[in-house]
## 1
Amino acid sequence: MHNPDERLAMARLLVDMTNRARARFGCAEAANALPVPSELPEIPEVGRLAASGVDAPFRGTACSFVKPSLLPDYEWERGEEWAMGTPQPSGLISICDIRTGNRDSTDGDVPGRPRKAFVMYEGPLARARHESEKYSLPEYDVMCHGEPVSYRLYTPSEEDPAQWDKDPADQPSDSDFLDRFAHAAAERAGCPLPE
């Protein structure tokens, strides 16, 4: 949907429905209604211009702090490792895709093969992770400047590489990667994680 008026109308409708559902079901957050947007950011172009390398990270996204030393060593001989900041869909989530491949692709697609996604959740989305018995990770569910923040790592599903695994990966290399990224992100935010 590229018509800005239609996008804004749909966003306003979704926020209004969410606020009403939260009130109807007695959610604790219902007292703090989500603000109905008055404008939306433009949809970024897809392709290499939308892809940000580690030498020029997107400001204000989960990639803002990325430097080459944080990237994992995939030993994948067909291309370089680089990070692509996904434009934020809202102030509640920020994503950094770690990709391997040729980022100078001009075939109209976002170049590179997705390998991992580092995600930062804030506000109600982070609070849900803090309070979940099943998905809470206390070392990565923290308070930052009085607000809940959660850091997670996702990898492409082995069954369907087009889909991301819903649960944080638990391989040792993934744990190390999440730890490095979470500590770097938290340090940049001014809320260092405990060692």
## 2
Amino acid sequence: MNWFALLVVAKAPVPGFAKTRLCPPATPEQAAGIAAASLLDTLDAVLATPGAVPVVAFTGELAAAANRAELTEALGRTTVLPQRGNTFGERLANAHADTAAHFPGLPVLQIGMDTPQVTPALLVATAARLDEREAVLGPADDGGWWALGLRDPLKARALTEVPMSTPDTGALTRKALGLTVDIGTRLSDVDTMADAVAVASRTHGRFATAVLA
């Protein structure tokens, strides 16, 4: 794998709108701070990944976000594209298509902002699987997925037919793609406070500080 687009799908960590499943025990402000820390750690890894062209499909009011100054600086080092679509599947498909339009010919590896434990080495290794397969899926412990890599990003239109945030989202995504899909490293994403504590205990950085402080 040489160059590839590394796409982060993210929303502004605004209190009352971000990581609401952490509340309680977290307050809306604390949950937004944890979400901001997760996104910032993710962007650190993305920006340090060799061969990656960093892209962020973003939604929400950055001006109202926690850690907005630091987020503004980090996002300024990426190509930021607005999310489009009514459903999450539509927004994901459009994010892949828009990334392909900006960077034609590049494969796309898409991740979210819920796996702050990602590292540049893991991202490179996951993208490299596209050398041998049409697609790669990084499974999540909850049955979904944390990463989707596509040699042809327009194939992401299949996501519009996949129910998201269900225990079988990963299996349904693999079936809907209709491609030769390699399975990458399994990770736990952050949905609940128990998830956050488990991930924070295995990593360092802003996220661990925000969760364990």
